[in-house]
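tl;dr need the bound structure. longer version: we got a ligand (protoporphyrin IX containing FE) that a collaborator sent over and nobodys looked at where it sits. i said id run it. heres the input, straight from their email, havent touched it
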Amino acid sequence: MPQAQPYQPVLLRLLHGAAALLIILALITGFWVYNTYDQRWGNLPLPRLGDIQGIHGTIALTFLLLFPMFALYSFRIGYRRLVQTQSINQLARLGQPIWWISLQHCANTLMLLAATFSVITGRMMKEEWLPAGDVNRAWYIAHLMAWACLFVSLALHVLMGIKVGGTPLLLSMFNWKRRQSDTPRFWLQGFQKQHSDALLKSLEIIVIGGIGLAFVLPLFNLA
Ligand code: HEM
Ligand code: HEM
């Protein structure tokens, strides 16, 4: 019997695909900024790009504008794939398939948390600091730590995806197939349903609140 192919809703594929692309570009251009002005923990022989900060800022800001939609989707519609209270109990069942699935849910959730940390710290960066050699600012160090967290989370996220569903699962997130019933009219079905899991609710408050902070914090000039 042929194995059932995993299917991802079109709205998830659109939001997740854009987020994945922008995060990968933000990681690369962010590293490029570090490589241009800092290099204290190593460097790569990359060419110098005059406006690398501007390029990074534009990509990162585009991600920030998309992120609330993706995060809301994940918490409201895709919440079954995020950490919930039951995941904690399942984590005790070491080595069983459910254990891996819970780990994957942890990795999915970690992506949202690491991206939130990145956008908050990134929004507090000032374009003047690094060209002036001002590389010990707390927000810059925090932004570098966010880069490392995001990098490790992304590696775990992809590895867990491979472990749990193999290449078919990874490809299902990026292919073009569409079920006839998957039309925009049904994309937001279930969006308003309130889930009652306390852990999931707390995570939602942290991520959505964090994204809100990323929008408003720069207005307070806390550098
Ligand atoms: C080594 C890694 C990184 C370095 C050195 C770095 C550096 C910077 C710098 C210098 C800025 C200010 C640019 C400007 O205002 O135009 C900035 C802004 C920003 N960064 Fe990063 N970044 C890194 C990684 C990341 C990553 C992985 C993300 C993930 C999304 C990110 C998100 C942001 C955001 C949201 C902004 C604010 C953009 C804006 O408001 O215009 N950064 N970053
Ligand atoms: C190369 C990049 C990426 C690949 C290959 C990838 C792959 C996947 C796969 C296969 C799933 C489905 C997992 C499952 O069934 O539980 C998934 C879900 C998810 N991914 Fe990614 N991902 C990538 C980048 C990202 C990025 C950058 C983020 C966050 C900013 C992210 C956040 C998530 C979240 C939150 C889910 C769960 C979605 C839901 O609630 O329905 N992923 N990803």
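gonna send this back to them w/ a short note. The pocket of protoporphyrin IX containing FE (ligand 2) is lined by residues 12, 16, 19-20, 23, 74, 78, 81-82, 104, 108, 111-112, 115, 157-158, 161, 169-170, 173 (CB under 6 Å).
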